[in-house]
Amino acid sequence: PSPAPEDLVAAAAEGDIVVTGTLALSGVDEAHPAPEGDAYTVRVTNADLETVSETVTGAAFSVPLPAGGPYHLQARVTGSTTWYPTWYGDTPSPEDADPISTSAEIVVTLPRTAPVAGTVSTPDSGYLDGAAAYTVQAWWIDPENSERPRLLGETATSGAALSTSDWSFSGATALPVGGYKFRLTQPGYPIFDDQYYLNRSRLEGTPVTTLTLAGRTGVGFTPRDFGSTTDRIAGSDRYDTSVKTTQLAFDGPVPVLYVAAGAETTWPDALSAGPAASFQGGALLLTDPGSLFPVTAAEIQRLRPERIIVVGSANSVSENVLREIDALSPTDEVSRIGGANRYETSRLIVEDAFPAGSYREVFLPTGEKFPDALSVAPIAGRSGQPVILVNGAAGGLDAATRAALDRLDADLGRLIGDTPSISAGIEADLSASGLVGSVDRIAGEDRHDTSRLLNAEYPSFELNDAAFLARADSFADALSVGPAAAALGAPLYLSNPGCVPYDTRVELQAHELDYVTLLGGPNTLQPAVGSLAVCP
Questions:
Q1: Any idea what the CATH number is for the domain that residue 140 is in?
Q2: Quick check: is 536 in a domain?
Q3: Residues pairing with 138 in the sheet
Q4: Are residues 100 and 139 in the same domain?
Q5: How many C-beta neighbours within 10 Å does residue 156 have?
Q6: What's the pLDDT tens digit per position in 214-268?
Q7: What is the per-residue pLDDT for 10?
Q8: What is the annotated signal peptide range for this record (predicted)?
Q9: Is residue 398's pLDDT more than 80?
């Protein structure tokens, strides 16, 4: 039962908060009357969705909670599948629930559920041995934020070649009325492409299917053999390629633009700047150290950045280039961040972009070689976590890096690369320092394997079907991709110049990444890579 009024007064007097409110039902009719009495359950969770309290109540409820939060509140009709459990904010997804941190009076409206049914018609494929296993997914589309679908249901089915199998969401798995995109996928290593209802191959461009109280039937799928599409980002030089990379992902205005030198010796500045740009919703461009090329100048004007940060000292990006950039800026927000070396520059970039506080993790790749820092940049960017370059060959953790880590107060310090890249001494120092909650290392047998392990540990959004391929032994065409890949939600893998490593090709298909963009022209990644030809 709901707490008595005197209990609520006592709770408030002790400094706790009290959440009161009303539970409303949509779709009530003669056949589906509103239940009476204590027919509802109100569950309150913490930010990690761990249950804090659960109360059986009537349509009017009051819940005392310890001061603090944030909390999330879910309501359901106890033991009923007629109305869908709903979070405060009127959403079926806990990820979109409105937080509660103070006493509040709220209303939660529970929608009716409805059934959905359809079929899968399995084609005759030369790759099919026996029956194919499928998963049908129901992705709910928030009418106020259609860019981030939420998975509300999955159901399994299977079928042999030239057969038709049925599937449904009904009864306990019925869905709340609203808009959906239905997807067919295969668990494990797929032999068929994933497919969206109405024979669409990609999430983008798939129309929303409306589920009404009457339910829906005839949601059919006919899968096709798995196939990949590739394209390239390739300019006349690394600076033109950098411009084409930002054009793929960003429209102006952007909050911030980092400009780093694209010279052979200055790659660490760009790799430090990428995650910082992503954290702020910005982009990264390369420039020639001594001259601002017209193509770069035009892109700066197109992006219309609110703030421009030139990365590196005058030895990296000349004062002349800085003045030219300043002349292009519509604001006075043009500055330089540059240290005495690549490591100080990296720390200064992090200090400028990431406010002091507690982060989930901090990534620590070496600044002596580029592949590991290149691979982790999109991951750090889309997760909003900092990257600090370290001298991986050093015997221990230096004082300046310790100070930077202390300021970030990260739960996890993630070393990138094996002991030839990041020394055992650095790992031991970090573990003993207390500067991070714990220490872990992601390290493969080589740079390709490390890249794959990173992407396996930090997979992109499940509905993402795009990936980037960069040459593993040449950074020039890939330096700008970190913020672009992060903005698009796409992972970055490494490739040999003339072929794709077998395990990388398998990973691309296993994660249904069938739209692959190569970074650089055919002199960087040969035509065979464009066909995703596997290395012998």
A1: 2.60.40
A2: no
A3: 153, 182
A4: no
A5: 10
A6: 999 999 999 999 999 999 999 999 999 999 999 999 999 999 999 999 998 888 9
A7: 55
A8: none
A9: yes
Indicate the residue type of 512.
Answer: E
Give the whole-angstrom CA distance, residue 468 versus residue 240. 18
Is 536:249 a contact under the CB 8 Å cutoff? no
3-state helix, strand and coil shares in percent for the chain, rounded to the nearest 5: 25, 30, 45
Whether 158 contacts 131, CB under 8 Å = yes
Of 469, 519, 524, 463, nearest to 491 (Cα)?
Answer: 469
- Note the pLDDT tens digit of each residue in 175-202: 999 999 999 999 999 999 999 999 999 9
Q: Does one domain contain both 107 and 118?
A: no
Residue 126 pLDDT > 90, yes or no?
A: no
> Are the CB atoms for 501 and 493 separated by under 8 Å?
no
State in Å, rounded, how far the first CA of the chain is from the last one.
Answer: 69
Element spanning 244, H or E: helix 238-249
Per-residue pLDDT tens over the stretch 431-448: 999 999 999 999 999 999
pLDDT (average), residues 498-517? 98
Q: Residue 176's domain spans which residues?
A: 114-221
Report the distance separating Cα 267 and Cα 147, nearest Å: 33
Verify that 216 and 233 share a domain, yes or no. no
Helix (H) or strand (E) holding 346: helix 342-353
Phi, psi of 472 (to 5 degrees): -75, -20
Q: Which residues contact 511 (CB under 8 A, 6 or more apart)?
A: 455, 459, 460, 491
Q: 522-525: long-range contacts at Cβ-Cβ below 8 A with a sequence spacing of 24 or more? A: 522/234, 524/234, 524/471, 524/474, 524/476, 524/477, 524/497, 525/232, 525/469, 525/471, 525/495, 525/497
One domain, residues 212 and 234: no
Non-local (6+) Cβ contacts of 15 within 8 A are: 67
| Cα angle: 236, vertex 241, 247; to 5 degrees | 125
Flag whether 294 is in a domain: yes
The answer to whether residues 1 and 8 touch, using CB atoms and an 8 Å cutoff, is no
pLDDT(1) > 50: no
The reported pTM is 0.92
Q: In the chain, how many domains are there?
A: 3
Average of per-residue pLDDT across 23-47: 97
pLDDT at residue 195, rounded to an integer? 98
- Say which residue the tokens 């960003």 belong to: 250
Which H, E and C letters describe 35-97, residue by residue? CCCCCEEEEEECCCCCEEEEEEECCEEEEEECCCCCEEEEEEECCCCCECCEECCCECCHHHC
Phi and psi angles of residue 466, each rounded to the nearest 5 degrees, phi first: -115, 150
Cβ contact 198:207 at 8 Å: yes
Question: 288 lies in a domain?
Answer: yes
Q: In the prediction, which pLDDT does 266 show? A: 87
Say if 290 falls within a structural domain: yes
- The Cα–Cα gap between 492 and 494 comes to 7
Same domain, 349 and 429: yes
How far apart, in Å, are the Cα atoms of 161 and each of 126, 223, 352? 10, 11, 58
Are 345 and 294 in a shared domain? yes
Domain final residue pick, 111, 141, 156: 111
What is d(CA 52, CA 46) in angstroms, rounded to the nearest whole number?
6
